Amino acid sequence: MHVEFLGTGGYHPNERRHTACILLPELGVMFDAGTSVFRVPARLQTSELSIFLSHAHLDHIAGLTFLLPLVLDGRLDRCRVYGRPETLHAVRTHLFAEAVFPVEPEFEYVELPEQVAVSREGVLRHCPLKHPGASRGFRIDWPDRSLAYITDTVADGSYREFVRGVDLLIHECYFPDSQASFAVQTGHSHTTPVAELARDAGVGRMVLVHIDPLDDSDDPLDLPKARAIFPNTELAEDGLILEL
Fold it and tell me: Which residues contact 106 (CB under 8 A, 6 or more apart)?
């Protein structure tokens, strides 16, 4: 089972990273739908797609509009978009407002139930995250592996038990520690608390995403500092593929 990091930046795309989208191509499961969704058609291996939206900020939903050709030409038989009621309302009312995008794709909009069954005996659950406008974190457990996707939140430990013991933790880290005050102001994470959370939750490995697009350097987050706390930490770039 592969995990493909199609969009690993936040806010707006830059030359190195588009905005949020994580794809499990063999299962037809996708987390968020940022500007990187244009990469989905070449990678998706199923005729059905389940999209789980963390929240309705533009860098996480804009790419829903890019899926229209897949629906119109029949490459997608079914596309379900899961989210909180307010998230789905924002998508349908604003993103697909006629004046903004005149042809609404035939998606199935589904309010997030407590659990969702996904392919290969997987069970998806979700938890609340602290972020302006609110956000959700996701976790999928299979009989022999697990992953969690935590984006757009302050790494305050409130969801530590939710991610405890996952094999792969995909976690946002927008700022380095030198910009911790901005993290607090904007409801995002910075390096040290994220690494401490991964360590304290006993996860297997962690990949950092949702990086500040204003810094496209090789190490915008001080990766050695993170690894000193939690050694199995990796910084994602668009195109990263992991075996889970």
Answer: 71, 79
